[in-house]
């Protein structure tokens, strides 16, 4: 039985906060991402219909933060299965190349890559 952690634990909500680009205030956390949109998890319901100016502050090497600014339209919002939390779906209207890199990095990080068998 293993008694020591072999893989470093990451507190993803700490790293994946979403902010209002203009006020700098936190809106919620990334729930999932794709090339065309994202799901946000928040403490309050978000208004469906308007465009939001969002900002991600993504940690990089040596502790540097990379800022990714997005414009997205909220398409839906409903209460999460966890009481007091809400899920909101956004369609991206404007996103920089860094967002695509984030999506690719997260997909790679959370994907299962089986080792190839060697004879």
From TrEMBL:
PilZ domain boundaries: 5-98
InterPro entries on file: PilZ_domain (IPR009875)
Gene Ontology molecular function: any one: cyclic-di-GMP binding
Name of the molecule in the record: PilZ domain-containing protein
Organism: Pseudomonas putida (Arthrobacter siderocapsulatus)
